[in-house]
Amino acid sequence: MTRVLSGAALIAIAVAVVWFAPSPVFFAFGELLLILAFVEYSRLATACGLPIPAVPAGAATVLASIGVSSFHWLGDEIVATAFLLDAVLMSGFVVLAAMSLMTWRGDRDKDAMGRAAASVFPMLYLGLPIGAMLSIRASRGSAAVFLLMLTVMVSDTAQYYTGRAFGRRLLAPAISPKKTIEGAIGGFVFGAATLTVAGAWWLPDLPVALRAGLGLTMVALGIAGDLFESMLKRSAGVKDSSTLIPGHGGVLDRIDALLFAAPVYYVVLKYV
């Protein structure tokens, strides 16, 4: 019951924020989710023996999301927006990589590369996807963002129930012992159908074949994102990224599929 009630509350909040929140509120909500997800990521990294400099790494991650979303704010000033994003990513890399020097413990420490990578990674893993979703909402409207979220939610639900009903073969037993190939097929069918059909209203400028292909791609990336976060959790020896959401784990557990799907969705809508 707790899982059902908290799940219903999450859906209601997501729908309200995506559809009805003014742009500044949506931006603030997105950055709040980003910060919460970063905190969970930082804890996972520490549990894996790869502590990161939380404040500078968190600041770089937030700035990376702002850099991506600024492509809409600054309109046609492509040079300015590209410069901002380049500056954030390059400066963040240099600063965070250099800060790993302060935590290295000498020749007996074999995790120097891992520590440096763990510090830089959240800019790409968290900052760019959240920034992409902020930019999509600003440039293409609420419907485009909700369509991506709906596709992922329908796919996740279909994977769960199809897997329970027909699942026999494990999809990735070393990472997720409950995901099945049959469940993934159900996710592909229903998730891709959702984007193809609903996209006729919410993305009418995309041809039906492109919507279908994009739907299949979003489902595949969502499954990969889910498995990737599961891999991080198993490496850290935890079941959930946090206990923030009763019955559902943490923020990372809820947005893991979107983190892989959103950047490609953003590129397709912006350039294709």
In a few lines, what is going on in this structure?
The protein is an all-alpha fold and 272 residues long. It has one domain.
Report what the structure shows.
- The chain is mostly helical and 272 residues long.
- It has one domain.
- It is built from 9 helices and 2 strands.
- It has helices spanning 2-20, 23-47, 54-73, 78-99, 112-140, 142-166, 181-202, 208-236, 251-271, and strands spanning 170-172, 176-180.
- The protein has a two-stranded antiparallel sheet.
- Helix 1 (2-20) runs antiparallel to helix 6 (142-166), helix 4 (78-99) packs antiparallel against helix 5 (112-140) and helix 7 packs across helix 8 (208-236).
> What is the helix/strand order?
HHHHHHEEHHH
N-to-C terminal Cα separation, in Å? 43 Å
Low-confidence stretches: none
DSSP strand content:
under 5%
Biggest sheet, strands in spatial order?
1-2
Number of domain modules: 1
Structural class based on helices, strands and sheet pairing: mainly alpha
What is the mean predicted local confidence, pLDDT?
88
Provide the helix percentage.
over 70%
Largest sheet entry: 2 strands, antiparallel
What's the β-strand tally?
Answer: 2
Radius of gyration: 19 Å
- Multimerization status: single chain
Globular, elongated, flat, extended or rod-shaped: what is the shape?
A: globular
